[in-house]
Amino acid sequence: MKTGVMKAGFAVPQVFTDGPVDLDEIRTISLKAESLGFDDLWTQEQVVGSSNSLEPLTLLSYLAAITDRIRLGVSVLVLPQREPIWLAKTVATLDQLSNGRVTLGVGLGSDSNDAAFGVGEKRVRRFVESIQLMDSFWKNDSTTLKGDHFTVEDLSMQPKPVQSPRPPVWIGARVPAAVRRAVKYGDGWMGQGSASTELFAKNAQYVQELLDAEGRDPDTFAISKRIYIAIDDDADRALKRLEAWFAHHYGRPQMAAEVSLWGSAETVYQQLDEVAEAGAQHLMLNPVFDYDEHLEALSEYVRNRA
C-alpha cells in the first residue's frame, strides 16, 4: 500500500495507575519529546470511570504553555457527549495559545454513558451536526444551522483559530459506516489503540478506496494509528505490565495481548514497520510505563525510518 512520509507522535503521561498525578513527569517527558524531534504530543479521553486519567483538553492547554514547536492533539473526544459550540471555542482558544499547533481528534464512541451527559437518540446525526457547527464557527463570520439537535441563527465566534481554514479534524473510526464519515467530514482517519494491526490494515485499505472514489488527494488526508507499546527484553514481564495498565484503564487486561506491541526493541521495531506497511502515515506511539526509556528507544526507531 502506498504510504506518505511517516510521522510519529508520542502519548504524554496522562493515566497514573500507581499514585497521584505526576506533573514533573508530564513536563519532563513532553519537553524531551519535543527536543528529540517527535512531530506531536497526544492525549486521550476518559471523563468518567475508575481510570486515574486527566481531562485531555485541559492537559493540552498546559502543554501549549510549556512547549514551543511540537504539535498537540487529542485522540479522541467522544463528540456526541460534548457541546459543540463550547468545544469550538475551546479548540479555537487552544489554537491561539499554541500558535496554531492543535489537531482535534473526535469519534462517535460508545453510548454507554450518554444518559449521564444528557445525550438522547440520533447520535450519528448529532455527531455530524457538531462537526458542521464547529467548522462554520471556525471559518465563517456568521453561523446558521437548523438541525435535529442544534438550532443556531446568525451567531459568530471570535477569535478564529490560527490555522486556516480550521485546525485539522481527525476522526476515529472502526466500522465501515464510521470510516466513511471520517473520509467525508474529516481531514484524517485514526485507527484506535484498541484495534489490532490486522483491523487497522483492513480499514486503511478502505480509506484509500474511499479517497480514490471521492477524488481526494491522499497526500492531504492523514492516516494514523495509536499503538500501545512495551519495550522490554523480558517479553513476559512487558506483557504483564501492559495487562495491569489495560485492567486499570479499560477494565480488560486481556486486551493488552490483542492490540499491543511488546518485546525487545528490535521486535517492536519490526511490528511498527508492519503498521506502517499497512498504511499508517503517522504512528501515535503510546507506552504506558517507563516513559523516558521508551522515548529514547522510539526516537531511535523514528530517526532510522524517517
Describe the structure.
The protein is of the alpha/beta class. The protein has one domain: Luciferase-like domain (TIM Barrel, Alpha-Beta Barrel). The chain has ten helices and eleven strands. The chain has helices at 23-35, 56-66, 84-97, 123-139, 176-185, 197-213, 235-249, 255-259, 265-277, 291-305, and strands spanning 7-11, 40-43, 71-78, 102-107, 143-146, 151-155, 169-172, 188-191, 222-231, 261-263, 282-287. The strands form two sheets. It has an eight-stranded parallel β-barrel, surrounded by eight helices. Strand 2, helix 2 and strand 3 form a beta-alpha-beta unit. Helix 5 crosses helix 6 (197-213). It starts with 6 loop residues before the first strand and ends with a helix. 42% of the residues are buried. The model has no long low-confidence stretch (mean pLDDT 96).
Report the CATH topology name: TIM Barrel
SSE-based structural type: alpha/beta
Could you tell me the number of beta strands?
Answer: 11
**Helical stretch count?**
10
Q: What is the overall silhouette?
A: globular
Work out the radius of gyration.
Answer: 19 Å
Domains counted in the coordinates: how many? 1
CATH superfamily: Luciferase-like domain
Uncertain regions spanning at least 5 consecutive residues = none
Mean pLDDT: 96
Helix-strand pattern, N to C?
Answer: EHEHEHEHEEEHEHEHHEHEH
Helix content percent band: 40-55%
* Order of the strands making up the biggest sheet: 1-2-3-4-7-8-9-11
